[in-house]
Design brief:
With 110 residues, the protein is of the alpha+beta class. The protein is 32% helix and 21% strand.
Length: 110
């Protein structure tokens, strides 16, 4: 009968850095897309705050100042703007369409 080690062997060596570089580029792209969306929503009267925190996805907080309870966060990746519940808003290449969708969702209704 052969004894089975109780802990798996440890593998050591250099850690790959490519993944980190790709993430950094993606994060920069996400921030740029969100900045463009903020620039489109600000003149429409929405309060926008770009939130970039270490270890978290960049987020654009959007609030309707006429109805402060109408607020939402928007995320972005290389291709799409997203609601936090994982529904697509619009392509990042079509910032006006994304702004229109966000404005429609956050519009005050009478």
């Amino acid at each position: 009968m052969t004894a089975v080690p109780s802990t798996p062997p440890t593998v050591t060596g250099p850690r790959p850095t490519v993944g980190g570089m790709v993430y950094d580029d993606a994060r920069e792209s996400d921030v740029t897309s969100l900045e463009k969306l903020a620039a489109e929503l600000g003149p429409r009267g929405y309060n926008v705050t770009l939130i970039v925190a270490e270890g978290r996805r960049p987020t654009l907080a959007v609030r309707n100042p006429a109805a402060p309870m109408l607020s939402e966060n928007v995320l972005a990746d290389a291709e799409w703007f997203w609601w936090p519940w994982a529904d697509r808003i619009a392509l990042t290449a079509d910032v006006p369409a994304a702004a229109e969708s966000v404005a429609r969702v956050l519009a005050a209704r009478e």
